[in-house]
Design brief:
This protein is of the alpha/beta class. The protein is built from 13 helices and 6 strands. Helix 1 (about 5-20) crosses helix 8 (about 215-245) and helix 6 (about 175-205) runs antiparallel to helix 10 (about 285-300). It is elongated and about 90 Å long.
Length: about 375
């Protein structure tokens, strides 16, 4: 038999086992989304030290007072930027949650005062809400109100503030949580299927029996990886469906659902291969499960699944740059909140996830081959 035929036959076997335990597998795929969406959706604590980029073209007394009031509490962390273009670039890549632009002439005596522009990134709803609240409060203390247009009464609103949303203005916190949760449950789905299947077959003696048959040994590995990828897609879409029922939205619509197949599939491929590498070196199921959880949970957290990367300490932000789940989470959130995944981001995210998957497949192959030689 050829490699493809052997892989297909063994993959069908995995599906038959899945069908036999269908109820357990479905319930397991539903537990994580329900628990995390309900817990995190109700958590609602306001984040601290939300990063905002500030462009001060005035540098006068009133503008400096405005900046000092912004930094008076621990709610905002002001990052100075020399130009509005540079600040908007920081906003576009998610390094800050908002851009505040103070124009020249702000500290002058003329009325009405020049408008202070606030560009909010509502793809991080909690952070945007904090920025909105603080700017409202500071404006009120300076005798102004947050306005939605450039028109302002020079008496009642001497320092008008105009809010222009960068993107995701219709998003909500559920969409933010679900965007990260989809990737987390996808990683869990592949880890707790492909690796478990290897350990189960080894304990039952099935793996040794397969190795004594004239089938391509690599097909055993491929069938396990395919099964893990299938489970990751199933878990992700179940989590997505639950999230939509509980209030999340998918701005990209049906096209976005198709884009998610590619991103989630790459996550399943990478973590399914990782799980097989772990299973090849784990003697007991309990040890494997502990290691799997220890890897997936921190990796998902550092990938921005629950907290925006911009709110993490600088050291952890550096770790997030090399974390493949960071790129997967960003892609899913772009689909769910922004409404589209730019081609440049798609290429970058896909390249990182493909590189991660390729490395994991190679490691899984080497370790699985060593284990196979020991069992043969």
């Amino acid at each position: 038999m050829g490699l493809l035929n052997d892989t297909y036959t063994l993959f069908l076997r995995e599906l038959l086992i899945f069908k036999k335990n269908f109820t357990v597998n479905i319930v397991r795929s539903m537990i994580f989304p329900i628990i995390f969406i309900l817990l995190l959706g109700a958590f609602g604590s306001a984040p601290k030290n939300v990063p905002v980029a500030l462009v001060n073209y005035d540098n006068g007394l009133a503008s400096l007072q405005f900046v000092n009031l912004l930094q008076a509490g621990n709610s905002l962390r002001v990052v100075s930027s020399t130009t509005q273009q540079a600040a908007m670039s920081m906003l576009g890549v998610g390094n800050v949650a908002a851009v505040i632009v103070i124009p020249a002439g702000f500290s002058g005596s003329q009325l009405p005062k020049p408008d202070v522009y606030v560009y909010l990134d509502n793809s991080q709803p909690q952070s945007a809400a904090v920025v909105n609240q603080v700017v409202n409060q500071v404006s009120s203390e300076m005798g102004a109100q947050l306005a939605s247009s450039a028109a302002a009464d020079p008496v009642t609103d001497p320092v008008p503030v105009v809010s222009n949303y960068a993107y995701g203005a219709a998003s909500n916190y559920e969409s933010f949580v679900v965007g990260g949760l989809v990737i987390m449950v996808a990683a869990f789905g592949s880890v707790f299927s492909a690796g478990f299947s290897v350990i189960s077959d080894r304990e039952l003696g099935n793996l040794k029996a397969f190795l004594t048959t004239p089938i391509n040994k690599f097909s055993i590995l491929l069938s396990k990886i395919g099964y893990g990828t299938m489970q990751s897609l199933l878990s992700a879409y179940i989590g997505l469906a639950i999230g939509v029922v509980l209030g999340a939205t998918i701005a990209a619509g049906f096209i976005g659902l198709l884009e998610l197949i590619w991103i989630v599939g790459l996550v399943g491929l990478g973590f399914g291969s990782l799980s097989i590498a772990l299973a090849a070196r784990s003697k007991q199921l309990q040890t494997y499960a502990l290691i799997g959880q220890t890897i997936v949970m921190p990796t998902a957290f550092l990938g921005g699944a629950f907290v925006p990367i911009s709110l993490l300490p600088p050291v952890l932000q550096t770790v997030a740059v090399v974390n493949p789940l960071t790129y997967a989470v960003n892609a899913v959130r772009a689909v769910m909140i922004k409404g589209s995944l730019p081609i440049g981001d798609l290429v970058l995210d896909s390249a990182v996830l493909l590189a991660f998957a390729a490395v994991m497949v190679a490691i899984a192959f080497l370790l699985f081959r060593n284990t196979s030689e020991q069992l043969s």
